[in-house]
Each structure stands twice: as structure tokens, then as C-alpha cells.
Amino acid sequence: MIDVKTLYDLKPSFGFFSRQLMYPDKTDFHPDFLERSFLPGNPAYTHARAYWSLMQELSLEEIQEIYTSTFDFNKDCALYMTYFKYEDSKERGQMLAKLKILYEMFGLEMPEEELPDYLPLMCEFLYAAEWMANPQAPDNFRMLLAILEDGTYHLLKALERLRSPYFHLVKGLRETLKASVRQEEAR
Questions:
Q1: Which region, left, alpha or beta, applies to residue 107 given φ > 0 means left and ψ of -120 to 50 means alpha?
Q2: pLDDT of the residue at 184
Q3: Upper half-sphere CA count for residue 142 (Cβ side, 13 Å)
Q4: Is the separation of the CB atoms in 38 and 16 below 8 Å?
Q5: From CA 92, how far away is CA 115, in angstroms rounded?
Q6: What is the per-residue pLDDT across 58-74, written as a single tens digit (0 to 9) for each?
Q7: Which pTM value belongs to this model?
Q8: Contacts of 105 (CB under 8 A, 6+ apart)
Q9: How many Å separate Cα 25 from the centre of its chain?
């Protein structure tokens, strides 16, 4: 079961994940950005801090080079979360359509040039959407979080093999997702 209150409380961290998973820009590494994005006790903080520390040692050009070689030229590190499971099958198209409908239900306009399973876009949706007043949010978000969990699992394994600093970022994202799911009590 999705704990929408916890997910909502963790919204600032999804903004951080979204920005850090897009092509790097100097504004993404403002010294205060990390601290503003994680409230005390956030389950992702130690992972985000490890990522942040590694990135602070690099120039923007080095970060951009790592990003490009990792996400643009490495099939195993695709930022499209349904790609790992479905590649280009008909089922993937159906999942993409469902995600697009979900985003629109909560007021997000899809950029024409982007697929709805693009990880930074999914994180941006969780950061920007308002769902607390919607009683259907837990059911509606079940698919979204399942796609994120499945896709980031494969991505995390590939980043670990590469010893990429992005491993820590995705690990933090997974911890955030895990904190947003509560186990149903046995009946």
C-alpha cells in the first residue's frame, strides 16, 4: 500500500533526484541544494550525501562527460524505466499511455519531446503533483511506484558495475520509494 502522506513529506527529495538525473547544469550544484532537498531523517540523505560529495570533487565538464557516457551511451543505464522490462514491445506502449493519463489526472502536461517513463520526469511529477486531496492517489500511484521500483533496480545494478557516482543517487531514490510503501497487515 502506498503511504501518500510519507510520499508527500518526501516531495523535496524528488525535486533533487529529478534535477540530478537530467543533463547537468551549474545551477544543479548550488551548495544549498542538497540541504534544502532533504529534511532531517530522510531515508535517502546518506546516499544523496555520498553522491553529492563525489560530484563536488569534479568540474562541471567532468560531470557532464560522466553523465553522457553513463546515460546516453550505455544501454544498461537507460533512464526510461519501462525499457528494461519491455524494450519496444506493445506492452511498453500500453504502460506509457497509462503513465501519461496518470500525469494528466494530476495536472501535469507532458512535454511533447519526452516519454512518460523518463526517470527525471517521473521524479518531477512526484515533486510537483498535488495528490493529498485525492482519495484515489494510493491506487493510482501503485503502478507508478512499481515501474520506478522495477526500472531503478536494473539501473542501480548497472551503475554499481560501472562504479558510477550516480549509483548513490539512484540508491537514495530507491530508499525514498521504499519508505513510501507500507506493508499491509496480515488479516
A1: left
A2: 52
A3: 7
A4: yes
A5: 11
A6: 999 999 999 999 999 99
A7: 0.92
A8: 140
A9: 18
For 37, the grid coordinates are 532537498
Adjacent-strand bridge partners of 80: 118
Question: Could you tell me the CA-to-CA distances from 89 to 86, 94, 147, 162 in Å, in that order?
Answer: 6, 9, 15, 27
DSSP state of 28: G
Neighbour tally for 106: CB within 10 Å: 16
Helix/strand/coil for 57:
coil
The Cα–Cα gap between 98 and 79 comes to 18
Instruction: Determine the residue type at 64.
Output: Q
| Mean pLDDT to the nearest integer, 78-91 | 87
Q: Provide the grid cell at 61.
A: 565538464
Residue 77: Cβ-neighbour burial (10 angstroms; 0-12, 13-18, 19+): buried
- Looking up cell 520526469 gives 121
**Residue at grid coordinates 523535496:** 12
Q: What is the DSSP letter of 128?
A: H
